[in-house]
């Protein structure tokens, strides 16, 4: 972003936010290359915008933040610990709120170190709470300056995004010293606005906005209208939209920041619905022409209404609060493409029954303390919002009280990185199931690759976060696939790289914690004296690394530790170790320093010897692998020792230990009792520990099929019975004709992923390569995950499978070039979103009366556990969605308005992360048009 001139007033921008989440971000088959390096900030092109989760920089009401604002005060806005705004940001997007001033006045925000401009950012009267959206260049010492001319107001400042430095690319922002384009109170500027008026904003001689500017950032103020109304700002030459830029009351002075696309003749149009208000328009920046092809470039649209809760039915109001989930990107009728990284919105509250505030934040992120606008009973308040897009291409709007109605208008968006598109795909192609998106994660933009990935990655429960080991000196990284942020995990307290290799990451369900193995000695304040391999846990919230295995009395462990497995909450970590000074017990003997399975309870500060049994304190021949259940109650481990009295096969077998007591079970006994011929290896365990999958060449596990093949297969034991099921079967139920191994199980146990050399696991397998197959045990369906980006069969060599706990993401490593720019022939880590095809066959009943709340039942195939139905038209809303275990029926309660819903309605269903709601090319969408209301 480039700022011109010696002084820059705050640039207030409106409507850059997407607020409500129903749909998902990824098309039907999405590849995400997760091993990409880079700074801790997602890449934006020069001048490009990067949204962040709102972060509170200042609240003068809090102790230690200083008194109310009188005169000037500097505030650091870039490089602040806890926020995602880098220290070299050229500008920041702020939400500035004035609270309870003693008198009327204004606040100005401008870059620190330059003279205060005459422009104002927020205007207020005594006792008001007034927010406004402000874009301001970052000044000296990475700070801005705030000035209040009167009234000693309290000030709250939240940062919602930042602009990258440099000469702006297409769609990039250039900030300018504010110029007044219009003040209808001045002589020769015309009367108050009582209809539509065009205003030239680009190529005006006295401003710095060039004639070819694509859009402008404005601050628009309405002054003393004689009746209530609203003002709409839109591109000249376009039809006037229903969207409003700001709403006003009689004799009110109200301002709002907005970004508007430049129309014909370099102009915009202003429409006042009534009250003949005086209007002041200041231009504070402009966006470069051309289609934004670089990350963060702005594209303006003719404003359109996304939500008006007064006519679209009400979200339930619980205790005065409401939470709306909307998707503005990629939906039918939207000019905002689905790959947008952030959106520009105008959000208006109207008719609240009591006081409260609105918070707009990315879906999937924790709701911040920041607010976007505040209101009191009966008030109508607008504000522009810039917000990054969260999970499912969506954002959330939270109303804290008063049950307000909400009006949400879209005015534009910010482009995603071109690396997020498969070569040859366009924005419109993203709606076609044959075109996939993925993020190449092993290159730091624009083309510097991080190096080979070492071993399997680990993915959070919802597929958002992926931890992996990579680099010349192998380090652990965590990548956020929604924001593009890649963070170094294996670092010293000062932030330096680990001084030796780290590997085998294991990530918690929410992505906060990453456990890993490391040979480094500099990961703690006090460097370890030994050169043992040890297990650590990184905390994303504090960005700190904790060494887990400490010996008795706080001494260093006297042996190595490796192969961590982590519980969902990140508190319990299972690992292997040949140390003998972890556990205080006269009975504990580590025979010849052989590996045992241990569990560290971080909160409790305890170490549990997991591989003990009633017969022996620990297996004399050691443990080969161990995994902990998601709930932290059970550990499944593999050992060749005959821990059960009837285990006589002299082969590895799987055992399960309940950590709260000494309950222990032999997992891989035959269903009829006794040992199998060849034993079993590679356990993987469901969240509740009730299902355990494993690999074996034994034929005795499957009582339903005569197995004479020597190949290795995947089996699953239900711990509530002696039942064992063969998972690795062909679509017709036949035995596979090649080895299957390295199973991974979802939290519920419904999905099992595994590698296989068989050619009959999926149809049309002719490449002769190892495949990653995901078995839906409920539906009896096999899916090949490792198809090429164009969804054809891949000839790439793959290894290191992963599966998210929700069963929706499967991953693997390969050195093949799945991504543009991936040219180092080194191993990289990929994820694929697995969307189920939905087909609807029946709806019951097919007609309803108005003013009713019927229960609708849909019958079909492929409903995911969190499939989303929608009914077109206004005056309808959906609640109480229930999907059966087989994914064949979906029921929901339909609220029907007596006014708006007469006539025929279509019903749609989509699995989150699947294709667009549009039926064109959308394999994950089913539809029936049989519903009639009236």
Automatic annotation (TrEMBL):
**Do you know which Pfam families this protein is assigned to?**
PD40
Gene3D superfamilies named among the record's database cross-references? Immunoglobulins, TolB, C-terminal domain
Q: Which family does it belong to?
A: Belongs to the TolB family.
What is the protein name for this chain? Unannotated protein
């Amino acid at each position: 972003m480039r700022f011109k001139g010696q002084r820059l007033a705050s640039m207030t921008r409106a409507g850059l936010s997407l607020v409500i989440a129903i749909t998902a971000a990824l098309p039907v088959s999405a590849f995400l290359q997760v091993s990409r390096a880079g700074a801790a900030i997602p890449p934006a092109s020069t001048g490009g915008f990067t949204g962040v989760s709102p972060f509170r920089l200042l609240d003068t009401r809090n102790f230690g933040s200083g008194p109310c604002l009188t005169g000037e005060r500097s505030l650091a806005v870039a490089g602040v610990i806890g926020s995602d705004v880098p220290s070299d940001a050229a500008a920041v997007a702020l939400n500035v709120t004035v609270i309870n001033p003693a008198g009327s006045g204004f606040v100005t925000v401008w870059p620190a170190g330059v003279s205060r401009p005459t422009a104002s950012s927020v205007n207020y009267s005594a006792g008001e709470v007034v927010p406004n959206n402000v874009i301001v260049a970052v000044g000296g010492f990475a700070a801005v300056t705030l000035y209040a001319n009167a009234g000693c107001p309290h000030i709250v400042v939240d940062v919602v995004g930042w602009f990258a430095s440099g000469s702006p690319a297409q769609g990039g922002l250039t900030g300018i010293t504010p110029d007044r384009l219009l003040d209808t109170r001045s002589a020769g500027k015309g009367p108050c606005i009582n209809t539509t008026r065009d205003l030239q904003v680009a190529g005006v001689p006295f401003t710095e906005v060039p004639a070819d500017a694509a859009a402008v950032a404005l601050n628009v103020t309405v002054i003393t209208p004689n009746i209530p109304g609203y003002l709409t700002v839109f591109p000249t030459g376009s039809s006037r939209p229903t969207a409003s830029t700001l709403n006003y009351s009689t004799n009110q002075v109200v301002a709002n920041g907005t970004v508007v696309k430049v129309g014909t003749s370099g102009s915009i149009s202003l429409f006042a619905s009534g009250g003949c208000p005086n209007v002041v328009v200041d231009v504070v920046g402009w966006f470069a022409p051309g289609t934004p092809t670089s990350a963060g470039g702005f594209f303006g649209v003719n404003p359109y209404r996304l939500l008006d809760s007064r006519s679209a039915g009400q979200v339930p109001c619980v205790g005065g609060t409401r939470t709306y989930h909307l998707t503005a990107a990629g939906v039918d009728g939207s000019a905002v493409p689905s790959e947008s990284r952030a959106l520009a919105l105008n959000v208006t509250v109207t008719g609240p029954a009591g006081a409260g505030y609105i918070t707009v934040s990315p879906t999937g992120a924790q709701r911040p303390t920041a607010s976007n606008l505040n209101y009191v009973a009966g008030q109508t308040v607008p504000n522009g919002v810039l917000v990054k897009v969260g999970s499912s291409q969506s954002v959330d709007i939270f109303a804290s009280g008063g049950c307000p109605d909400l009006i949400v208008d879209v005015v534009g968006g910010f482009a995603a990185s071109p690396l997020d598109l498969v070569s040859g795909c366009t924005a419109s192609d993203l709606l076609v199931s044959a075109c996939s998106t993925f993020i190449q994660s092993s290159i730091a933009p624009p083309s510097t690759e991080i190096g080979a990935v070492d071993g399997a990655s680990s993915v959070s429960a919802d597929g958002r976060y992926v931890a992996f080991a990579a680099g010349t000196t192998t380090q652990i990284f965590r990548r956020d696939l929604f924001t593009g942020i890649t963070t170094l995990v294996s670092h010293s307290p000062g932030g330096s790289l680990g001084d030796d290799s780290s590997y085998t990451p294991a990530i918690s369900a929410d992505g906060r914690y990453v456990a890993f193995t490391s040979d480094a000695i500099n990961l703690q304040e006090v460097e370890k004296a030994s050169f043992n391999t040890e297990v650590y846990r990184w905390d994303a919230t504090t960005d700190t690394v904790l060494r887990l295995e400490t010996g008795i009395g706080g001494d260093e462990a006297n042996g190595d530790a490796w192969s961590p497995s982590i519980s969902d909450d990140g508190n319990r970590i299972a690992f292997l170790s040949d140390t003998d000074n972890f556990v205080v017990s006269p009975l504990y003997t580590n025979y010849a320093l052989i590996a045992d399975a241990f569990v560290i309870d971080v909160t409790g500060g305890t170490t549990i010897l997991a591989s003990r049994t009633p017969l022996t304190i620990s297996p004399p021949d050691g443990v080969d692998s161990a995994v902990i259940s998601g709930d932290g109650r059970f550990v499944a481990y593999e050992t060749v020792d005959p821990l059960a009295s009837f285990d006589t096969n002299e082969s590895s077998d799987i055992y399960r230990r309940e950590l709260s007591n000494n309950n222990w079970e032999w997992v891989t006994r035959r269903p009829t009792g006794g040992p199998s011929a060849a034993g079993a290896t590679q356990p993987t365990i469901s969240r509740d520990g009730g299902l355990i999958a494993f690999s074996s060449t034994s034929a005795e596990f499957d009582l339903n099929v005569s197995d004479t093949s020597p190949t290795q297969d995947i089996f699953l034991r239900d711990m509530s019975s002696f039942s064992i099921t063969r998972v690795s079967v062909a679509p017709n139920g036949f035995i596979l004709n090649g080895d299957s191994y390295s199973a991974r199980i979802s939290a519920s146990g419904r999905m099992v992923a595994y590698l296989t050399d068989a050619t009959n696991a999926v149809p049309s397998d002719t490449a002769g390569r190892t495949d990653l197959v995901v078995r839906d045990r409920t539906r009896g369906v096999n899916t090949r995950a490792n198809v090429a980006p164009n969804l054809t069969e891949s000839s790439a060599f793959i290894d290191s499978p992963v599966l998210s706990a929700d069963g929706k993401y499967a991953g693997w490593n390969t050195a093949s070039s799945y991504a543009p720019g991936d040219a180092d022939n080194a191993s990289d880590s990929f994820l694929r979103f697995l969307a189920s095809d939905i087909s609807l066959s029946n709806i019951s009943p097919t007609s309803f009366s108005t003013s009713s709340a019927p229960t609708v039942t849909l019958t079909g195939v492929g409903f995911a556990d969190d499939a989303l139905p929608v009914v077109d038209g206004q005056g309808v809303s959906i609640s109480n969605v229930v999907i059966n275990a087989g994914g064949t029926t979906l029921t929901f309660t339909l609220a029907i308005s007596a006014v708006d819903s007469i006539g025929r309605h279509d019903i749609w269903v989509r699995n989150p992360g699947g294709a667009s709601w549009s039926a064109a090319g959308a394999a994950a969408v089913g539809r029936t048009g049989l519903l009639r209301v009236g």
